[in-house]
Amino acid sequence: MAKYDYDLFVIGAGSGGVRAARLAALSGAKVAVAEEHRVGGTCVIRGCVPKKFMVYASEFAHHFKTAEGYGWTVEGARFDWPAFIAEKDKEIARLSGIYVRNLQNAGAELVHSRVTVVDAHTVESPEKGRATAERILIATGGRPWMPKDLPGVEHAITSNEAFHLPTLPRSIVIAGGGYIAIEFAGIFNGLGVDTTIVHRGPNLLRGFDDDVRAHVAEEMEKRGIKVILGAQHRSIEKLGEGRFVSQFTNGHHCESEVVMFALGREPYTQGLGLENAGVKLSDNGAVVVDAYSKTNVDSIWAVGDVTDRINLTPVAIREGHAFADTEFYGRPTTFDHEMVASAVFSQPPIGSVGLSEADARHKYGKVDIYLTRFRPMKYAFTGADERCLMKLVVDAATDRVVGCHIVGPDGPEMIQMAAIAMKMGSTKAQWDATCAVHPTLAEELVTLREKYVPPGLGQAA
């Protein structure tokens, strides 16, 4: 007789949880995975995938302007928000269904309800009551954070609701300076919405390279997005049906039809009952784990955004895969969180991998910087003032490329290839020895020869 009802019980059917559950089930283990919302998690349902569709939709206005420079006449173009939302929802439903089928085909049992932890080996849900498991995996992801004590905060939406607005607003104020805020600023601006972004910090995208941060803010403003820095919301007041006024700490205010908060996300551990099993949490509620994603409780693991390591979908998938390899295939595996590339689908988009210049100087001391700004060939006929930025950060002692940052068309596509080279420890000399593909934007990465000299300095940094 089995000691437990399940070999593995996964709480959360997002990318990380589904990967772990499916692989564990394919090993012959008895697996259940619970999801209180829709299968697919943040990425598929209310994150990466629908957001990328919205980015695509919003970029056409810019493409139309570019087309005119190439002799095209674009007349009568208009955007149908309800039609787009319907198609987007149809595709998301299809993808969610694929996740469900993959779990079922692997032999995993799906529990459609919220599950809480009772003790180190027991979970409970309205659908199944109590069940025991040899292993429990927490993969509940994160949720948008809102300042609950802000007057009028009940009038604001988060990124969750932005995907389902019944009508496209004529104006929006977006609070935040991270990637979610600037991505949605580009989306709404591209769709013709009067867009204002307000951020309490001195620049957008904290944690990114400073040259990238400054360049993106400048390019966003060129496209008509109003960027307010050094301020945050003091209150939100309702003026009437469909109109709000945001009062800022700098004494200014802004009226809009929608106020959206994108002030970051927090691990979704509240109410899970992890304290019943003695699972250790960090100050922000993240599940504390070791290199193998194991908590301080021998029977409980956690992967993905709920651990607040690197909050990216591919990372959650790799963590879930490593967990399954270790626990169900006898192959002890950890995921290397170093040199993970990331993309920000702002407009223009960003691709980044490795260290910023500031972090590299802190880690290595002396670094060499290679930087270029230029107008993409695509805009030669349009008169547009748009500029790309490409930057390489090199450890001066070893010549190893330790940072690569791109702002411009196809930056996220290019950075995937750059990440392969950097993961292998490639040197600047090896990049220089690589023949360029011409004419492309990417060729700049292997033709940067002169070290960058910051304005006002007489020698290379």
Description of the molecule:
The chain is 31% helix and 23% strand. It is an alpha/beta fold and 461 residues long. The strands form five sheets. Strands 1, 2, 3, 4, 5, 6 and 16 form a seven-stranded mixed beta sheet that branches. A five-stranded antiparallel beta sheet has the order 17-18-21-20-19, with helices on both faces. Strand 12 and strand 13 (253-256) form a beta hairpin.
What's the gist of this structure?
With 461 residues, the protein is an alpha/beta fold. Helix content is 31%, strand content 23%.
Number of helices: 13
Taking all residues together, what is the mean pLDDT?
95
Which structural class do you get from the secondary structure elements?
Answer: alpha/beta
State the total count of DSSP E strands: 21
Radius of gyration: 24 Å
Give the termini distance in whole angstroms: 68 Å
Summarize the amount of helix as a percent range: 25-40%
The proportion of residues in beta strands is 15-25%
How would you describe the shape? globular
Query: Biggest β-sheet: count, sense, barrel?
Result: 7 strands, mixed
Low-pLDDT sequence parts: none
Strand and helix layout:
Elements: E1 6-11, H1 15-26, E2 31-34, H2 41-46, H3 48-69, H4 81-106, E3 109-111, E4 116-119, E5 122-125, E6 129-138, E7 142-144, H5 159-162, E8 171-175, H6 179-190, E9 194-199, H7 210-222, E10 226-229, E11 233-240, E12 243-248, E13 253-256, E14 258-261, E15 265-267, H8 274-277, E16 300-302, H9 313-328, E17 342-344, E18 350-354, H10 357-364, E19 367-374, E20 388-395, E21 401-407, H11 411-423, H12 428-432, H13 444-447
Parallel strand pairs: 1-2, 1-6, 2-3, 6-16, 8-9, 8-14, 9-10
Antiparallel strand pairs: 4-5, 5-6, 7-15, 11-12, 12-13, 17-18, 18-21, 19-20, 20-21
